[in-house]
Amino acid sequence: MTATLLILFFALVLDRLVGDPDKVWRRVSHPVVLFGRAIGVMDKLFNGKRLSADTKRFNGAAVIAVLLAASLFLGFVVHALLVRLGVLGVVAEVVIVAILLAQKSLHDHVRAVSTGLKRGGVDGGRQAVSMIVGRDPATLDEPAICRAGIESLAENFSDGVVAPALWYALLGLPGLFAYKMLNTADSMIGHKNAKYLDFGWASARLDDLANWPAARASILFIAAGAWLRKSRAAARAAIGTALRDAGLHRSPNSGWPEAAMAGAVGVGLAGPRIYGGARVDEPMMNASGRTIATVADIDLSLRIFSAACASLAGAVLLAALLVALL
């Protein structure tokens, strides 16, 4: 357990410093891209238009079960091979874990929204935010762009950083591979539309379950980040807002980190927005906060995020030391 936690600590540090170099992934496929290809093949084979709803639901459940089993097996095999390599194997596992975390890439994408607004105004912000959110960018004014960037940062802190770290800490590479496969499946086929409502049902429900603990744990790290980068009051606001407003979000998990970040920054998040031409009406989380989000709020959320990531790494290192002493 100590070795696993130490590998995770160094992977968190490596990912935060290096992230996903574009030059590398232009030449070789990122593991998540490979997961996506496997899901895409299954989608084409088992999600035919003429199939009944019950058949699609059964096929979808069977497909995700097979993909998760394959991911677990692959994780066991890769870890077993790396163990035989000694120190080189440990280094390789650190790199693999870092590749499947998303601290720097997430920070860079949201920082691009801030930069886009500063340099290109609303058009620059819309172009940057369209890379990270599914809502229609043409409908977003500057405050909406800022809210979208902050919401994406908070939500993906949970499922792109805390959740993979948690599942690696619990189950090693098998747990990490299975989580990333499941999370990729949810993003591809877990939509509530005519094509995927039934086929993606099992993937969506399992992803909700897998993200349940990380979403709630994430508020503690966001609060720690708020304390380090803003104030003790901001940390209390992060936890209090999450406990009060998380249930206002349509997702059983996304509301926790988003509400925490809303409280920490002091702005209202979520509320009505448009996805694919359809209006989604939701209550505003932290409705008592400022209604007009600004570029400065994005920059503050990025500082809080960075401190939250550092707090997570510190917690992992502390856990490793405590386990070693027991």
Could you state the order of secondary-structure elements as H and E? Answer: HHHHHHHHHHEEEEH
**Largest sheet, order of strands side by side?**
1-4
CA gyration radius, whole angstroms: 20 Å
- DSSP strand tally: 4
Instruction: Report on the biggest sheet.
Output: 2 strands, antiparallel
Could you tell me the mean pLDDT?
A: 93
Shape: globular
Approximate helicity band: over 70%
Q: Kindly, what is the distance between the CA atoms of the first and last residues, rounded to a whole number of angstroms? A: 11 Å
The quaternary structure here is: single chain
Strand content: under 5%
Structural class category: mainly alpha
How many helices in DSSP terms? 11
Low-pLDDT residue spans: none
